[in-house]
Design brief:
The complex is a heterodimer of chains A (537) and B (206). Chain A is mostly helical and 537 residues long. Chain A has a single domain, classed as Cytochrome C Oxidase, Chain A (Up-down Bundle), CATH 1.20.210.10. Chain A has 16 helices and two strands. In chain A, helix 4 runs parallel beside helix 14 and helix 7 packs antiparallel against helix 8. Chain A is globular. With 206 residues, chain B is mostly helical. Helix content of chain B is 84%, strand content 0%. Chain B has one domain: Up-down Bundle (Four Helix Bundle (Hemerythrin (Met), subunit A)), CATH 1.20.120. The chains are: A mainly alpha (537), B mainly alpha (206). At the A-B interface, helix 7, helix 8 and helix 9 of A face helix 1, helix 2 and helix 7 of B.
Chain lengths: 537, 206
């Protein structure tokens, strides 16, 4: 494999198709351009969501009203949640890196339905604008929390309808992306790429796509029912008309718990790519990782009730949900074991993506184990709806998915832009981010155990210390985000030219020039019996 | 290079399109599946009220609509066979019959719903809240949501059928490339199938 930078006139960034300028991007059916469209739109939404998070932390700097009143705080955490969940972490890894790298990793020229793929992005943008319109127009910003619990979601006077409809459209975008990936993986693998030769990121995208396809319609229809309840009082969730609000919670979590696995599964896939590459060693237990991926995707369907232990449910149901929740921990632990074993006796290259991967394992384990505390029936009663839940959730979703996302962008950046970022600034950014993350969320575990509830703009004086620490952590974290963004944005246009395979990886995306040509492969690659995604010598 | 690109953009894989359609049908089934679950839960909780409310619906109109949809499913399946046998005119006639039957179904539905509205039976009406029990209100709520969502699917199906007709007429869909007609047929069968379940649940079980 040559390690010389190849100048390719027809690379996808410079390619001029039927449309020019901005139209050449927003009307492009090229999976790589669509991946970047998602990346840019998501980065903007992430910064807005992070800004709202900073505002919430600032409010909690001291007890009582600091900068906003209770209603403003309710609106802030609602919008923070809706943006981060529905627009950043759920679509995050599949839409950005799945779109960009799925065809490259399986040796295909594009996804199965390129125009449907572009339509998904347009749905995504329409969904964003619908949600944002709920903030800017009408009678007040939604204040229900991102879960839209009944009956408050149809009693609140705030402008909830556009937000609900926006979440529905975003769900549709997610379904279409999942459908597209499933067909692509089934039909477009290059000759010789058997199921057991697929890179693990592709496997996790496969599991994720099934969840997107099978769980999202449930929340879609549930949100439609809430909207109908608001518009016509049909009574399905309204206790005054005979409906059952607990039923809403069941339906909501039947989707929204598997959605957590939509967020985390591709993250596990990214880590399974980064670790063998920077250990220069075949991944330990390839088939066990695949089996655990599919097991998480399957068992993840059956645990939604653990969000509702205090909401009213039979004791028998509680036992089953608690048991199944504990079972999900097993395949996750198998993965961690396999990653560590891959590193063992490997030739480790301590680059930025690897730093993100190992710190991912650290926070993922803390997040996962605190999940068991929440999944245990007795402990759950004590920490339910406290800051402990917030800490657990952010350790998994920001610590897990967020760290994997940043690892992925530092891993694939040279392939996407054909340029390398400044490695020392990237490492500084990682260190500041990591320290900020731990300082921000670790105190919340203690605050939650002591009894500070979530979603309150005020707290008792005894919680002051932990909250000051967390708020300082949010500032450190923001500094880290600024360093990382600045470094990547500058390097995308001014970094050194990157070679074709800077990390000496074996997966197919590194066999094409950086940045990849418009049609990816001049000739569709053919895998021999001895080839494989992790066959390091 | 340009030549190669042209070929790639005309990449045609009917198998992929069919898998895609089946997966989409899977999501549609889950969408309605949840409504059937809600129906089951509330029927279990309000057994006698559901029976009482079902008597308000006219089983005869429901039966007529069921027969209309079954025939329309048959004609669209026959249209696929006709196209495969290169009998384009007959295929167009059959799919046209499907379109007309779909519209007749909607007209029936319009009068059925209109009758209910005239009697003050619709979600949020004061008459409903004053004169009916909670179980009956839930029954009518579910009736309007489920048949309404189904009617929306009929409308989407009719648009799809119109597009397919136009593509057949323009010669874009033909015996060697029938996948659009086949997928439209699959979608129409799904709409039919859901009605087959809605009909007994709302009209027949008394």
């Amino acid at each position: 494999m040559s390690s010389i930078a190849i100048e390719n006139e027809a690379n996808y960034l410079k390619y001029k198709g039927r449309y020019k300028g901005l139209l050449g991007w927003i009307l492009s059916t090229d999976h790589k351009r669509i991946g970047l469209l998602y990346l840019y739109s998501m980065a903007v939404m992430f910064l807005i969501g992070a800004g709202l998070g900073l505002a919430m932390r600032f409010e909690l700097l001291a007890p009582g009203k600091t900068v906003m009143d209770a209603q403003a705080y309710n609106a802030t955490f609602t919008v923070h949640g809706v943006i981060m969940i529905f627009m950043v972490v759920i679509p995050g890894l599949p839409a950005v890196f799945g779109n960009f790298f799925l065809p490259l990793m399986i040796g295909a020229k594009d996804v199965a339905f390129p125009r449907l793929n572009l339509l998904s992005w347009w749905f995504f943008i329409i969904g964003i604008f619908l949600v944002l319109s709920a903030l800017l127009f009408g009678s007040g910003t939604p204040d229900t929390g991102w879960t839209f619990y009944a009956p408050y979601s149809f009693r609140t006077g705030t402008n909830l309808l556009p937000a609900i409809f926006g979440a529905f459209v975003l769900g549709f975008s997610s379904i279409l992306t999942g459908l597209n990936f499933l067909v692509t993986i089934h039909r477009m693998r290059c000759p010789g790429m058997k199921w057991t030769k697929m890179p693990l990121f592709v496997w996790t995208l496969y599991g994720t796509a099934w969840i997107q396809l099978l769980a999202t319609p449930v929340v879609g229809i549930t949100l439609v029912l809430v909207a109908l309840e608001r518009l016509f009082s049909v009574g399905i969730f309204d206790p005054a008309l005979g409906g059952d609000p607990i039923l809403y919670q069941h339906l909501f979590w039947i989707y929204s718990h598997p959605a957590v696995y939509v967020m985390i599964l591709p993250a596990l896939g990214v880590i399974s790519e980064i670790i063998p590459t920077f250990s220069q060693k075949h991944i330990f237990g390839y088939k066990a990782i695949i089996a655990s991926t599919m097991a998480i995707a399957f068992v993840g369907y059956l645990v939604w009730g653990h969000h509702m232990f205090t909401a009213g449910m039979s004791g028998t149901a509680q036992y089953y949900f608690s048991l199944l929740t504990f079972l999900v921990a097993v395949p996750s632990a198998i993965k961690v074991f396999n990653w560590i074993s891959t590193m063992y006796k490997g030739s480790i290259n301590l680059q930025t993506p690897f730093l993100w991967a190992v710190s991912f394992i650290f926070v993922f384990m803390i997040g996962g184990l605190s999940g068991l505390v929440l999944g245990a029936l007795a402990a759950n009663i004590h920490v339910h709806d406290t800051a402990f839940v917030v800490a657990h959730f952010h350790y998994i979703v920001f610590g897990g998915t967020g760290f994997a996302f940043l690892g992925a962008i530092h891993y694939w950046f040279p392939k996407i832009y054909g340029r390398m970022y400044d490695k020392s600034w990237a490492n500084i950014g990682w260190a500041v981010f990591f320290i900020g993350f731990l300082t921000l969320y670790t105190p919340m575990f203690y605050l939650g155990l002591m009894g500070q509830p979530r979603r309150y703009y005020d707290y008792l004086a005894e919680f002051h210390g932990g909250n000051i620490l967390a708020t300082i952590g949010s500032w450190i974290l923001a500094t880290g985000i600024i360093i990382i963004f600045a470094n990547l944005i500058r390097s995308a246009s001014r970094g050194e030219k990157a070679v074709m395979d800077p990390w000496h990886s074996k997966t197919l995306e590194w066999t094409v020039p950086s940045p990849p040509p418009v049609e990816n492969f001049d000739e569709i690659p053919v895998l021999e019996e001895s080839d494989g995604p992790y066959n390091y010598k | 290079m340009e030549q190669v690109k042209q070929i790639v953009h005309e990449h045609y894989d009917p198998e992929a399109s069919k898998i895609g359609m089946w997966l989409f049908i899977f999501t549609e089934l889950l969408l309605f599946g949840i409504l059937f679950v809600i129906y089951a839960v509330y029927r279990y909780m309000n057994h006698s009220a559901f029976e009482l409310a079902a008597e308000e619906l006219d089983a005869f109109v429901g039966a007529v609509n069921t027969i209309i949809l079954l025939i329309s499913s048959m004609t669209i399946a026959m249209s696929t066979s006709a196209l495969q046998k290169k009998n384009v005119k007959f295929a167009l006639l059959l799919i046209g019959i499907t379109l007309v039957l779909g519209i007749v179904f909607l007209i029936n539905k319009y009068f059925e719903w209109g009758g209910k509205f005239d009697h003050g039976i619709f979600p949020g009406s004061a008459y409903l809240v004053e004169n009916f029990s909670q179980g009956e209100i839930l029954f009518f709520g579910l009736y309007f949501i489920m048949t309404g969502l189904h009617a929306l699917h009929i409308i989407i199906g009719l648009i799809l059928i119109s597009v397919t007709m136009w593509r057949i007429y323009a010669g874009k869909v033909h015996a060697d490339r029938p996948v659009l007609l086949e997928n439209t047929g699959l979608y129409w069968h799904l709409v039919d199938l859901i009605w087959i379940f809605l009909f007994p649940l709302f009209y027949l079980i008394i």
